[in-house]
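YafY family protein: structure, please.
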Amino acid sequence: MSIDLKKRFDRIVEILIQLQSKRIVKAQDLADRFEVSLRTIYRDMKSLEQAGVPIIGEAGTGYSIMNGYNLPPVSFNKEEALSFVATEKLAEKFFDNSTSRHYGFAMMKIKAILKSHDQEMLEHMQGQIIMKKQDNPIFSNHAPQLLNATLTSIAQKRQLRILYQGIKDDQAHDRTIEPLGVLHEIGYWYIIAYCLVRKDYRQFRSDRVMEVNLLESDFSKEHLSMEEYIALNPPTTYERSKVRIKVSKEMAPHVRWQRNHYGYISEEKKDDHFIMQFDCRDIEHEFPRWLLMFADHIEVLEPAILKSRMMEIIQDINLKFR
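Here you go.
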């Protein structure tokens, strides 16, 4: 079989799997996924129809497969099977207890159809991949089922009642919310939801939810999609500043540990030190306070305003602790 023919065969098989797993599949989405033209996707669909697959094409909507049509038993290659182990480990770390448990049950069903030697391989690999828990838990001990409840709320369009303590709150407050979706960022899940108290869209960080209850009441109205929400709420932009610092050889490994969070650009090795460049977003507070951890091992080369700001902070500290 030629390489091109094999590629086409693999693509058609994957299109068939997608049709089986989704209600509607758009031709443009398939073309983007496989990096081919729309004409190629139309030709592949025609091949599936000629092979007896009952495909329904809806103009302007996409393709679907007739209810009741089933694929023959699915098989997995070695690389696909190995990916199960990694995703299971990720689920253990990033999902709540309830969602992780459901995922585990689903994976057991998938593994059951693997060949015996592949099952043995996965069993061996289970102990070879370690995911350490992060120091700060993603979910509060009081709401260990938060992610599962949120996903159910989104799927069934049912309201959630949460007890939420924001970063500036002295105590947790009752909120009734209607989630649009979830976003994972900087080690935490964020629930994007319409808050009935604030009458506006808000983000709720997973570890700050102290209690969660799925209500019987339906959403009060239709909401934005996650795509629309993100388009209307772009990330905050900051005025950037170019920074160059001189770091001692001994301290460089410690600076490297966190530098990517602070706009790191490049590093140049000199005789007994390193010159590091940053594109700094907050030269007034965040960046100088981070640098103060290494102050006795660094030198600010530019800009002068950063050096002045660090001196101000040091003088304030000196007054308080003198």
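Notes: The chain has four domains: 3-65, 78-126, 146-232, 241-321.
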